[in-house]
Amino acid sequence: MQLFGHAGPQRHATVAIIKNGDVVAEYNKLETIWENNSLDFIWEIAQIGRKHKTLVLSFCSEARSLIDRNMLLFSFKGGHSNRLVSIALKIKAMLGMGFKILTFEPKYIVTMDQFALPFLYLIARLTRSALIPFSVREDDLERTWFICLVRSRFITKILVCSKYLKTELIKHGVSKDKIAVVYPKYPNEFFTIREIYDYDATKYEYRLIFVGRLVRLKGIYELLEAMRVLIYEKKRSDIGLLYVGSGPEEAFLKNKAKEYKLDHNVLFVGYKDVLSVYSYLIKSDVLVLPHYTEGIGRVHLEGILSEIPMIITETGGFTDFVEHNKTCIFIRPKNVRDIVDAILRLYDSPNLRQSIRDNLVELKRIIREQQSVFYQVLMQYMNDQPNPGNQEENK
After folding, report:
1. Helix H or strand E segment including 17
2. Who's near 228: CB < 8 A, 6+ residues apart?
3. CATH assignment of 189-370?
4. What is the pTM of this model?
5. 129: closest CA among 164, 156, 89, 97?
6. Which side of the chain, N or C, has fewer Cβ within a 10 Å radius?
7. What residues does each domain of the chain span?
């Protein structure tokens, strides 16, 4: 492993993958986490790199680069607290990514950042690469430009994370033959119970948990407001809420909890890696995820696999799996009253909580049978379409 200096004599890459996050730091962590880490996307990318020269490009807070055998990793600075500066950095980062793609001329370009899709579409046309959008979200379907691009004959494969999104894309005129559904694969290591030292679940009679990035779109403020109502209006002081996660709204959310005088009932433990999440979930009674919109959230799946009753918004691809009153309780987005009512309903009905848990045991078995791995789906497509540029010319 060495710092990347120049492309060297073998410039051509087989695949380029665009994502968010510091890919260099993520890749370095692979040496310290378990071998079959199919939950970390960088692990899947590294599996592709075992057989193919792989160019990985990402947006993050610091520009970094690294080369390790077939893996070529570049992180471009693409974020800033000032919105205008952030936009300028994002444009500069995309131009840098475009230069790398033009330099290494990959046959396939996979993007997890759909806002970069129009730019990558132009780059893919120049390099005659197959462009593959991955991790499409429900709100992407509301963008006319996105629908126009994915319907194009030059995009021959789309990877989504639910049957619901596949159905919606088909309704928008996208050929069903180019849509593949990929569910995250959870290895047995996920279910290992680990010691946690920053949370005493015995302090509360009824334990709620939120897991995820602390941003407004996750419904974090509605959940906090619901806790204020439960503690001070409904007089349910034995309820505790644990926020597991970090994000740009973390400091403001903590200040809001103090303002509401919820210090005793609301706790924050920050970001936890996926190895630890299961241990927090099984110490909780209910998982509350009041997201505004979602494709198929990984935390939703982790709730099922942990057999914990969930209160979730009826949005996106997760409706593929769950059923109201049977395996979860549905609420409306941005609705504090719905959150309060759902929490109290489960609080007052231990039999309903147990019934949901019992149903989740069978759902867990079904989901584990359906799990697939992104890198295997992509490599199968690469085997089926070895020369995408040549095929494109024959259409």
Report:
1. strand 15-20
2. 260, 262
3. 3.40.50.2000
4. 0.74
5. 156
6. C
7. 15-185+372-393, 189-370
